[in-house]
């Protein structure tokens, strides 16, 4: 732990215990989720974590920075603003965080109708894809959430996401994260979102993400 941190240590040699020392504090994993696809401004992170206060977010970012999981840098002009980025080491935890989300989705208390951020829905799609359903289906999908654009590449039963536009993509989707989650996970009608390009491929794509059976 860095100087000035008050978090209690587990004092346990197990790597899992140390992982909790590093990212087990409330909000820490959600902050890393928000940084999983690229740099974000403080205001952007806070906007996508509506339950966190500015003071707590400042504290968590400082802790993650001291632990080597987050770095700050200043964008070049004309932006000249400070952004936060996950370090390569921190990004190794993204898969674990996604799988933890998949595990928790089996809880009867999990409510898939609650709001979520664009980073959250994209990580969910990477994690929840059913390789058996996907089979040999392939394609490139562009997702626009206002000014934020992601590309997802489907192939070999996997779905890989980057935060970047994809000129010439097979399917172009514009939506809010909540509306997209509603179509994919809750059976909401497709006309709640905008779909351009290969609509038939998009409709097949939306069936590839079944929620896991509840644990009890």
TrEMBL record:
Specify whether Transmembrane helix is a keyword of the entry: no
Q: Which GO terms describe its molecular function?
A: DNA binding
Question: Which GO biological process categories is it annotated with?
Answer: regulation of DNA-templated transcription
Gene3D superfamilies under this entry?
SCP2 sterol-binding domain, Winged helix-like DNA-binding domain superfamily/Winged helix DNA-binding domain
Per UniProt, the keywords (alphabetical) are:
DNA-binding, Transcription, Transcription regulation
Residues annotated as coiled-coil are: none
HTH hxlR-type domain: which residues? 14-112
What Pfam families would the database entry show? HxlR (PF01638)
Q: Per its record, how is this protein called by name?
A: Helix-turn-helix transcriptional regulator
What species is given as this protein's source? Sphingomonas sabuli
